[in-house]
Structures are given as C-alpha cells and as structure tokens.
Amino acid sequence: MVVETLLPCSVKVAKLIQKSSCDVLCIIDRQVPPELVEQFGECRAFDKAFDSVVSCFKSQQLNLPVVYSPIQELSDYHDVRTYQKAAAKSLERAIKAGFKSPLLLVPASKRFANAELCTVLGALDQLYVPIQLREDVPEQAKRIAQLSLLIETPRAEDIIKEALVLESGRMVARDIGVGDPERMAPPRVEDYVNNVLSSLKKEVISDLDVLQKDYPLFAAVNRAANQVSRHRGRIIFLEYVPPKPARKTLMLVGKGVTYDTGGADIKAGGVMAGMSRDKCGAAAVAGFMQIVNEQKPADVHVIAALCMVRNSVGEESYVSDEIHTSRAGVRIRVGNTDAEGRMCMADALCRMKEIAIERQLPDPHLFTIATLTGHACISAGDGYSIAIDNSVAQKAGHARLLQETGQSFGEPFEVSVLRPDDFDFNKGKVIGEDIVQANNAPSTRTPRGHQIPAAFLIQVTGLDKHGLESNLPIKYTHIDIAASACVFPEIPTAAPIVALAKTHL
C-alpha cells in the first residue's frame, strides 16, 4: 500500500455514476453515457468546436456538472499521450471551477493497449502540488479531496493500484526536481531520501577526504560549494536486494546538480534561471527506487547513486585548464566548467562498474540519467528523452526496446547511436592529458553534442575496456532527459521512470 504522503489525494474505484460520491463528471471520450447522448448531440448541433475544446455545463438528467475534455482526432502519428493530455485538461478545468471530488470516466482504446493506465496517470499529473507549497501552506497541500475513477474492466482495481505505485515514484522525482536550490540542496536531499526510502540500504559519501580520493571529478565540481556547509555535495548510494537470486542487476547513476551557475564559465545573459532543475536526473533515479521499493521485484537487484552537488562559482571554483585524474586513472583536462554533469557522474559510474565486477553481479546494466545537454533539446524536441547504448547494450537491442515501451506508456524516446567521431572528439590534444572534458562552445553549437558526453563517460570510467570483444562485456545506457524532464517553470515530468519501470521491473 502506497503511503498517503506520496499520493496527491484519495483515489478510489467507482462502479456507477452517483452524485453522492462526486461533485463533477469528467469525460474525455466521444462515447458518452446513455444519459448524456441527447445533450451532447444538441451541443454538437450548435457548437462546431464542441469536440475540440474543453466545456463545462450542467447535465439535467444526471443532475451533475460535466467537464468534457475531448481526445483530439487521432492521426497515424498520434500516441497514447493524447489520452493523458485530455485527462489532465479535464481535471484542470474541474479544479478551476472549484470542484473537489471529480469522477473521471476512463475509456478503453482499441488502438492503445495501455490507454486506461495512461489516462489515470494523466489525471494524476494535474494533481501534483510542489513540496514547498505543501510544507509552507498546508491548507493548499491537495488540489482536490478525492478522485474517483470509473473503468469498465475487471482489471480496474489492478490498473489503479499500478498507477498509484508509479505515481508515488513520480511524486518523489517531482519533489526533488521541483525543490528550489535551498530546499533541495544536497544535505536536504539526503534528509528527504532518508525519510521516504527508509527501508532501502544506504551509503552516503560526504566526507571531503573520501570524495577527493575516491571521487575526484565529483570533488572538483563540489569545490566551491563545499565552502558553504548547507551546499556541500554528497553521493547517495541506495540498494534494493531481491528476496530471490537475481536474474539481472540495474545500476543507475543520476546527475543531481542542485543549482548550476556554470561555475567559472558562468551562465551569462539571463540563462541561469531554471538551473535548479539540473538535478532531475538524480530525482528520476530516486523516483525509480521508490517504484522498486513498492513493487519489490523478486529477482531484480537494483543499485542507485544520486550525485548531489551544486556547481557554484567563487574563489574555490574549479576552472578550465585544470588536470584531474578520474577514479579509473584517466587524466582529464577541464575544457569548460559548465560541463559539470559528466564530471559529477563519472566516478560514481566507475564505482558501479567496480561493484558489478567485484560482486560478480548477474547481467549488470549500468545507466546514467541526466539533464545533460541543450543539444538533446534541439535534437529531439520538448518531451522526448534520448537513449544511447554502448555496443553491448546495443547488441541486446536495449534502446529500441526502451523506445517501444516508452511509446506504449506515454514517455517517448529517441534513439541515438555512438560513432567513432564521438570518442575521437574527446581525445587529449597534447602529452599529459588523456581526455579533454569538453570544448568551450555550447553543446547546441557542437555537432553530435549529446552523443559526445556519453562517449566521455565510457572513456573516463574504463567502460571502454568492457566492450563486445572483452572478457567481461558490460551493458551501459546513457539517457539524456534535458528535453523531457521539464520546461521551466513548469512542473517536472519525472520522465523517464515509467518507461524504465515497465521495461525492467
């Protein structure tokens, strides 16, 4: 049972349309209850826009207000997100009208097998309240009192149960992602995770000496922020151990940059606003662990690392031209301090590789999840994650499977492929450096700007020694969610945790 604090309101299954259990009826399908057929026909007769805009009116026969938020006409290229958007708009209109107990009629779809689940998730999307508002103004902690769902299938209870588990993970991801630079500074993320994910195994690396020795690239990014106690970075390891022998192991590393000033290569010209959302990768990993904690898969072992750091600017900032040696022993010249995401994740990713080898974990698959590049935004467009497999994961068809699953559950992916050019771009230019961390142009003006960081993460962690022809091939997938996690100042989406959960759990 999902704890109430991780749900936006009370949610229940409805069997009938009854005024006693709701104060408004929300409809998104053109196939309406018999009691409304005549009234809908009359509305269509005088309003040509009736099936394309949201309407709110009173049904005399049902003696109930009705919100009609029609699913748009579908082309061959539409996907199940049309159901999610219609459901969200219906709840938005109901809330604006002042209703507190809506009943949503959840339609089935011959075309989209998961339309019912996605419709429920779309409705729940609209009900999230940011953590700071919930904490600061408790009377506004819930947008409605109760959501009733009428789903005409024997699986109704199971659909709602699954939706609530997924929503609890999305709520964790949104809470961390939406929190401002102080509310979700690294120490306070640790406090939040300790409270919400208390039953998981945890290890927190915050000692400066340990970070400098074992996670030197992370420590470089953390150097300026470490001067302020409330901003000091930490790497939070979480682990779920299944009750049965594991058949596979998921190992996820999330970029958790709680605020990105750009560092010494400062974000100028008004482009710094919104950089509190640069932690949405780690937020997604935490949300995924909440889903794991609820589902408790019998034979899937999951280890996560949240790399929580603030890329501050000051006299202790790391700067371009510095040489740092990664955990894997690779010498790296800093090219741009605003490429801090790959730096803060690299050593934790290397540690995941080491854990997989040392413990001989079954079928390990490593991931990095990050709001990493502006190039992902211009390449894929708003709302789309990008998956990039290494050679081992690509041979297994992983990114394509993730794309197919994401398409089915309203979290679409584009798939990019690593090329030799991506690795060549990162090679050191002179003696004394193995790898150059970044060029000094924005990723949006760098050809292959979202693939190059994935190659960097492979090169500086030693994963390049675990390819197809090695003695121990290891699967690795980099997921860039810069275009899908959020468009500031909108609420974070929690992408891509639904697609990951449906693919791997």
From TrEMBL:
GO MF, one annotated term: metalloaminopeptidase activity
Source organism, top-level taxon: Eukaryota
Residue intervals of the Cytosol aminopeptidase domain: 336-343
Keywords from the named record: Aminopeptidase, Hydrolase, Protease
Gene Ontology cellular-component annotations: cytoplasm
Claim: Protease is one of the keywords in the record: yes
GO biological process: proteolysis
Family annotation (Pfam families): Peptidase_M17
InterPro entries according to UniProt: Leucine_aapep/pepB, Peptidase_M17_C
Record bears the keyword Hydrolase: yes
PANTHER family according to UniProt: DIPEPTIDASE B, ISOFORM A (PTHR11963:SF48), LEUCINE AMINOPEPTIDASE-RELATED (PTHR11963)
Protein family (similarity comment): Belongs to the peptidase M17 family.
Name of the protein this chain belongs to: Putative aminopeptidase W07G4.4
Source species of the chain: Ceratitis capitata
